[in-house]
Write a structure and sequence with these properties.
It comes from Sphingosinicella rhizophila. The chain is an alpha+beta fold. It folds into three domains: 201 residues, no CATH class; 100 residues, no CATH class; 114 residues, Immunoglobulin-like. It is 41% helix and 18% strand. Strands 6, 7, 8, 10 and 12 form a five-stranded antiparallel beta sheet that branches. Strands 11-9-13-14 form a four-stranded antiparallel beta sheet, with no helix packed on it. Strand 2 and strand 3 form a beta hairpin. The longest helix is centred in the N-terminal third of the chain and has 26 residues. The mean pLDDT is 91. The structure holds iron/sulfur cluster (SF4) (2 copies).
């Protein structure tokens, strides 16, 4: 692409070449927290499809399963049918509001600790250190000529990246089929083409996003930082360099003379920049490249301990607190910062949605009925003078065992019902049918009623499970007599 010229006539590129980021290893409380979150999130991702959950002989025993073939979502003791998708929508709403809540309290904590891009990038950066050494060794190797040693190290590193990527892509598809069976089929070459294609695509994206693009995803590709920026306010906790305390920065001044010389606490050692996984300098102020991972806090706290100054030159702080501290005031207590109207409103909405879902889950019956009238013909006059309507009735048994169900009608005087399998000689006020486990039974039900009533009579079909668990459901329908033709 042609470069634009500035007023001096010198050509300038619109794009800055990416400088590889080689973050230095650091230890500290936030690093240890990141280790913990990484271990938990990776364990959840890789192990969950292998957890078993006994649902009896008629349902899969995988604890978490998106069964696309049978259109079911299993999550431990909960089974979601397609018509109950609002529970999944509720979970997504909770996740969204939860992110708003976390962002308004601790800024981009999601980005810094739990986002998959962060977790896998962090993992890949540890592989970098494991194979090539820490920051300085990596930078030296990057500039070194292509010797056998460099080729060997790079080959080993990319092989480990590939293995991690393959495990990541492979784990994903186990959420959509019985994991042990699918693993066996994959190894034997018997799995469906779409399974291999999905593993291939996810392996490639993990390899590229975690192995190469890394911080560029956070800075240029992901829309979430932009949205989050709009959600922050002056009382959100952010990783902040306390300029009022650190400036004027200086190098090589002995610790005893710091206060005398009226210098700031920052000794310009560059440690906060060296450990930053996105390669930014937090001393330049809040910026979109900061994922608030707090590793620079760990690095700077260590430096402060070495030069005998209090920790927290870089720390979680609100803009409001920084202003107050700069003028000699006190920071607001953390609890007061967290418990403010905005966060309490988010929390109230979040907990209300959660409680509403829990209530709905507790109340739902695992029986469901729907009825569709047959319009051709709308009614039939029987030889005894009665009028017959017919309906397609669907009964869902949402439990993993066969159940006996009784269907009845209410609100239609003198009516009798029967199925085409039973015949009119077995007509009665109710009928009983067996519904297979975790299935939908479709019945053609005839309803006969005396001819002398309203031309359109509203009534209800009711279904009731006859076993100890019970449960019932009903649906409204209309019985039509002569005079209703349109
Ligand atoms: S680590 Fe602390 S002292 Fe060192 S440059 Fe960063 S802010 Fe200054
Ligand atoms: S500036 Fe600090 S908190 Fe922000 S990304 Fe870098 S190390 Fe993490």
């Amino acid at each position: 692409m042609a470069s634009p010229e500035d007023l001096t006539g010198v050509e300038k590129s619109l794009y800055a070449k990416r400088e590889p980021v080689c973050p230095k290893a650091v230890d500290g409380k936030f690093r240890r927290l990141k280790w913990l979150i990484m271990a938990v999130t990776l364990a959840i991702y890789y192990v969950t499809p292998w957890l078993r959950w006994d649902r009896g002989p008629y349902a899969p025993d995988q604890a978490v399963l998106v069964d696309l073939a049978h259109r079911r979502f299993y999550m431990f003791g909960i089974e979601i049918w397609p018509h109950e998708f609002y529970y999944v929508a509720g979970l997504l709403i909770m996740a969204g509001i939860g992110l708003f809540l976390v962002t308004s309290v601790v800024g981009r904590a999601w980005c810094g600790y739990a986002c998959p891009q962060t977790v896998w990038t962090d993992l890949f950066q540890h592989v970098d250190r494991l194979v090539e050494g820490d920051r300085n060794a990596q930078m030296r190797l990057a500039k070194a000529p292509w010797t056998a040693s460099k080729i060997g190290k790079r080959a080993l590193k990319y092989a480990i990246f590939l293995l991690i990527s393959l495990a990541t892509g492979g784990a994903w598809i186990f959420y959509f089929a019985d994991a042990p069976t699918l693993a066996h089929d994959l190894m034997a070459g018997d799995a469906a083409d779409v399974a291999y294609a999905t593993v291939g695509v996810l392996t490639a994206t993990t390899f590229v996003l975690g192995g190469f693009l890394r911080e560029q995803v956070c800075i240029y590709m992901c829309p979430w930082p932009r949205i989050q920026t709009a959600m922050l306010d002056e009382r959100s906790l952010l990783v902040t360099y306390k300029e009022w305390r650190g400036e004027p920065r200086h190098r090589g001044t002995k610790k005893a003379s710091l206060a005398d010389l009226e210098l700031g606490d920052c000794i310009d050692c560059y440690q906060c920049v060296s450990v930053c996984p996105t390669g930014i300098d937090i001393r330049e102020g809040p910026q979109i490249g900061c994922i608030t991972c707090a590793l620079c806090i760990d690095a700077c706290d260590k430096v402060m301990a070495q030069i005998g100054r209090p920790r927290g030159l870089i720390d979680y702080a609100t803009l409001e607190d920084c202003r107050a501290e700069a003028q000699g005031g006190e920071a607001t207590p953390v609890l007061k910062t967290i418990l403010r109207p905005r966060t309490l409103i988010y929390f109230a909405i979040w907990i209300s949605v959660g409680l509403a879902m829990l209530f709905a889950l507790g109340e739902r019956t695992r029986v469901d009925i729907s009825a569709q009238p047959e319009r051709n013909p709308v009614y039939v006059l029987l030889s005894d003078g009665a009028v017959r309507n017919s309906f397609t009735v669907k009964i869902r048994n949402m439990q993993a065992r066969p159940r006996e169900m009784e269907v009845a009608i209410t609100g239609l005087a003198g009516a009798a019902i029967w199925t085409d399998a039973g015949g009119r000689e077995r007509a009665g006020a109710t009928l009983v049918t067996n519904v297979p486990p975790d299935a939908l039974a479709k019945l053609r039900i005839f309803v006969a009623a005396p001819s002398g009533g309203e031309t359109r009579d509203e009534f209800s079909f009711t279904v009731r499970a006859l076993d100890a668990d019970g449960g019932s459901d009903s649906v409204d329908a209309v019985f039509e007599r002569p005079g209703t033709e349109r």
